[in-house]
Amino acid sequence: MGDQMREACGVFGIFAPDLDVARTTFYGLYALQHRGQESAGICTTDGGRLRLRTGMGLVSQVFDENALAPLHGSAAIGHTRYSTTGSSRARNAQPLLLQGSEGELALAHNGNVVNASQVRDSMEREGHQFHTSTDSEVIGKFLLDTPGTWGERFAHLMRTFSGAYSLALLTPDRLMAARDPRGVRPLCLGTVDGGYVVASESCAFDHIGAEFVRNIAPGELITITAEGLKSEQVAANEEPAGCVFEHIYFARPDSKLDGTLVYSSRLAMGEELAREQPADADLVIGVPDSATAAAVGYARGAGLPYAEGLVKNRYVGRTFIQPDQRLRELGVNLKFNPLREVIEGKRLIVVDDSIVRGTTTPRIVKMLRAAGAAEIHMRICAPPIRHACFFGVDMATRGELIASDRTVPEILELMGADSLGYLSLEGLVRAIGLGDRHCLACFTGDYPVPVQLEMDKMALERPLTFDGDSPRLVANAAVQSAPRSAPLPMGLPATPGAVKQSSD
């Protein structure tokens, strides 16, 4: 079960004075739970002070009616985390609540900043103290320490920080959302009951009755106050580099990325894979859940029947209780169960989204053979992953990637299947479209920004000052807001760069 990539985090924000923003954020995070299961948190504002609740575990484990009751207000942000920088512990849970000379800021972050350690070193030399081991705290304290309007602060941030960051931020009087200049991680804007929402994926809008408006542009800062919404393009346009694995694996199939339904992208990947990597077979099955749509597409492209041959236990990875040694030896059997009556005697094409370390696929092959499969032809709807990710995906170091130094025949021998075929890079680009607007570095090694090739997700784990590891509820004093320039009225979404004035 250690072969999966770990999800990027999910962020959510809402400014809607007529709604119960804490409860709405709870359901928004529920829709984004697939992006991280280590911790969850919600921060609200009533216009005068911020209130925060975070804890370890799933959204439903951190929040109940009693936990939500004190979180009232007109705006909120939320976060569900998988750790890509810093350890999985309560003090690293988000949103982070930070205090600066000019007030408070709560921050929720999806992505990974590749030069966070260098920026933090510089800030520590200037006397700053850090209470977590996350790059997110470095972002937040940098914003609080930078003089000028919020637009000027974010412009300086985007000139200084390198990597991936989609942000939802809250002050006592405003909700802000921003995306790094290359748009590595997704972030979108919607409307709900006269207010606004932002989220990592559009599927969160469907669950709360919100309407999708558009993607937040790379380098854009959105500011929402009681007067309305404003858009600023605070960073110069750079070559877009959206993460291709959002299409392949991370995003829910009912989300829209780059204007395309993810389910449709995965169907197209399967159809391309059938054209490129055919096999004589009786039945197509997918490894659930992320490869299901691709398997349907493969069956359609190959003219073969599709069936569910593996049943997934969706809750095996959602507990802190570790299996004992006997159960651990069963490995992937805890996660998948084959349908013998469906696959026995059949020549199978088994479609999966990717092979990372190569620890799970041999177990699936062995399981299917034990259930009576006559032949097993593995088909992967992505090219071989030969390089590590440094932008918010915790997949493996390069030395752990099975394809980093092996040919496809060598990988096939380790898998134990009858054949193995990957989708080509060209086929993937055709299936998704806009290929030149995506980061393909995990396949090619061509990173959109310079990276340190052996980065450590624990690089910021240093002696820290903090007040314990318990979930917390925090209330702080109001902060006087600075004068604002004229924004758009509520309910009228801005286009990127439509308002040039500062958001402060």
Notes on the structure:
The protein is an alpha+beta fold and 504 residues long. It folds into two domains: 10-241 and 459-475, Aminohydrolase, N-terminal nucleophile (Ntn) domain (Glutamine Phosphoribosylpyrophosphate, subunit 1, domain 1, 4-Layer Sandwich); 259-313 and 327-442, Rossmann fold (3-Layer(aba) Sandwich). The protein contains 16 helices and 24 strands. The strands form six sheets. It has an eight-stranded antiparallel sheet with strand order 11-9-10-1-4-2-3-24. A hairpin with a 2-residue loop joins strand 9 (188-192) and strand 10. Helix 5 (135-145) packs across helix 6 and helix 9 (262-276) runs antiparallel to helix 15. The radius of gyration is 23 Å and the shape is globular.
